[in-house]
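BUG: 3D viewer hangs when loading the predicted structure for this chain

Environment: internal workstation, default settings.
Expected: structure renders.
Actual: progress bar stalls at 90%.

Input used:
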Amino acid sequence: MIKKIQIKIAVMLLLILASSCVSDEGNYNYTYINTLNVTGIDNEYTVYTGESFKISPNLNPTKDDGTDPNRYTFEWVALKGTRTVIGTTKDFDAAIKLSPGQYKIYYLITDKVTGVTWQTEFLITDKVTGVTKKQDYFTLNVVSAIYEGWLVVGDVDGKARLDMVSIIPNGTTRVITDVLDAAGSALKLSGKAVDVECFGSALATSTAYGIYVTSTETGTARLEPDSFAWTQSQNIAYESVGGAFDTNFGVDFMKSAGPAENIIYSKGNVYSYIKVQQVRYGLPNNILDTETKPFYAAPFIAENQGYGGPPVLFDKDLRRFVRMNVVKGNCSIMPPVVGSPTVLDWNNTNCDLVFMTTSAYNSYENFAVLRNITTGKFHLLRFNKAFAQTYYKEILNAPDFDKATKFAVSPDSGYLFYAVGGKLYEYDNGTQSAKLMLDKGSEEITYLDCNARANKLYNKKLIVGSYNGSVGKLELFTVPPVNGDLVLDYSYSGLCKIVDVAYRAR
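Structure tokens produced before the viewer hung:
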């Protein structure tokens, strides 16, 4: 009987509960919160590194009267192995500072009123299957804008900056200011600009391409050639034997006769790297094999086609030319010659060296400008790989030659160019006279050279860097024969005040 009563009671309770549930239906008040339906974003984009990129999404809120402009917070998140926040505003409008590659980009919006975070969804259609699906990111393809082109180091407001004239194969040419920042490099230049150089097989342990940039306080750093990434161990100090250089060691300039071969100059000392001979930077090479004390090398090196040439230096102390033996790490005297009005005594020049370089002209001749310390007169010397002097005469009919600050030799004609302020002259050693080729007025010519390691489109051009007081300009000219007027082929403006230029080749 008790059991039957308990069963009846249980059934009655169930009926009461069921009745109460039915009677409660429709008594709750549901409140719809603000939702976002984002539009205006495509599912895939392609952009160059360092290039400005803009997206302006429409939020399309359902319950927002727009009276609170700070109602939302935003995050643009790039994902490729690691998570990187690349923007925190509604619209994305900034330069892309990501390494080349394919990234997933997430657009996150938090409504501070409701506390809800919305993650934008995109409809993606598979081109092969035709199937459409939702995904919560869009694709950003970041393409290298630093593939090839001119690297330009200079100063802006007294501080070093590396710019680039980027030349994309079958694409556009663009000027990238502060390319280290644009590429997301960890290298931050400090002090004033000094040098930039590019050459192949730069390391003894690999075939890596070498891009080296130098500033007075940072020293000389080697960039990863494709991304411009950098770590402290990429400073040139780590390429020396037994820590011969200080960590922030800096070159004044570099000369490379070819891949896997480099000579550096720093404060009167010269060091060499020859991969095939397993020669690495170590003790100074500016010491004669018959002497015990290094000499102070003048700040010029004639590569003379490399260690097989060999390279030529100038002893500033004793005013003499010397030839390097980069394998032995020292120098020796030049072959003795009897001096005359048309022949210079290598070992007793009585001159200061004003300029020296190796030019591709006439199967790679070496050019040197000297000033006689007794007469004050200037002379031009030319000599070949075997040290045979092909020309030695006084420089005549050359206006303001004593005021020249920059020099270059045309590989086509052998003309000697020199700059005085904003004026550029071409000196013809055949006629022993100079012609005014450019007059830039108040602008200053800050750089002058020809670059044999540039792309074949540019490796015979005369390169002129100028500064108008605000920005720098890089111009490339064809040098016609018979003293013809220069022909401007390429011009790039908006650069730093140019100190040095190199070509990142492929």
